[in-house]
Amino acid sequence: MNPLEDRLLDDISKGKEASTEDALLIVSGVKTPQELNKYKRKLDNIQARFQTWLRAKGAVSDFIHKEYMSITRARFLFEYLWNSKPRRHGNGYLLTVAIDAQLDPDVNSALGSCIGLTALYTVLCIRENIDTVILTNGDHVLNRLKHDGLSINVENTDPLGFDKEPINDSFEELPPVLLIASILNSRGIDEQKRGECKVALDTFSKAVTIRPDYENVYNNRGNVYFELGDYRRAQRDYEIAVKLKPDFAEACCNLGLALEKQADFDRALYYFKKALEISPQYEDAKRCLEILGKRRS
Questions:
Q1: Coil vs helix vs strand at 133
Q2: pTM
């Protein structure tokens, strides 16, 4: 139980504004106001180190806190983070993990995945009055800086990722606070792996409450229902995932499996074939199609 998280998610679901920094820390496991303040002080430390590094760069630093220099300041922030931790790309997705790793004296310590790195860059941008949103396709997240009609993509997993080339149309631009849905999705996956299926269901449900169009969460929640043997609810979640993203090959294959478990073989066959149409090399769909074919022969 995390009362801070319950209150936060209730406020967001009701349309109330929430501090992005607080929200990302809370869904990353912070459970008390005292712990929240502790991590805010750690962020103060990181920000102070950045500003010290910035002043050491020379006279240009006297001007970059002007509003019209925000993109330059954002580039310096990106460079500072990579210079201070050049092997920063890792597996952690929690902001708290990224903060602790950023302050770790070991220069080679990894910070986190695209989610953890984007969360850290996001809160530091907000602290530096740099306007940023997030871009996500469900599987990957990055930043987009917005200033005076300009849009600059920032790929936090790549040391050359500042002002990244335009990305494909599968990415959606979202407010920074909705990065919490990505953290909740990753949390749910970890909980399921640990065998905490009921906890995972609750976490995935929180994620879709915050972001109802997040197709990956419906697919992942469907996987938990499937593991629990609740094939009808699994089917429902897979159907929502496919409706939200018609070219979602994994969700199509999973939907076929849920239908097969309910002896709806014709529809199962349809979705296995659809998964292969989307992704011809999808081995799981090939295997499912072969097994279903043998069963019906």
A1: strand
A2: 0.92
Structure tokens at 105: 């004296």
Q: What is the pLDDT of residues 204-223, one digit of tens each?
A: 999 999 999 999 999 999 99
The tokens describing 198, both together, are 């009921």
Domains of the chain: 3-178 (no CATH), 213-296 (1.25.40.10)
CA distance 18 to 275: 39
Q: Model confidence over 147-196: pLDDT tens digits?
A: 888 889 999 999 999 998 767 778 899 999 999 999 999 999 999 999 99
Per-residue DSSP letter, 68: G
User: Quick check: 207 and 176 in contact, CB under 8 A?
Assistant: no
Q: Which residues contact 33 (CB under 8 A, 6 or more apart)?
A: 4
C-alpha distances out from residue 148 to 30, 109, 127, 145, 162, Å: 36, 36, 19, 10, 18
Instruction: Give the Cβ contact number of residue 19 at 10 Å.
Output: 13
Q: Which two tokens stand for residue 215?
A: 């197709």
DSSP helix/strand/coil, 153: strand
Q: What is the DSSP string of 208-268?
A: HHH-TT-HHHHHHHHHHHHHTT-HHHHHHHHHHHHHH-TT-HHHHHHHHHHHHHTT-HHHH
CB-CB contact of 86 with 109 (8 Å): no
Q: Do 102 and 81 touch, CB atoms closer than 8 A?
A: yes
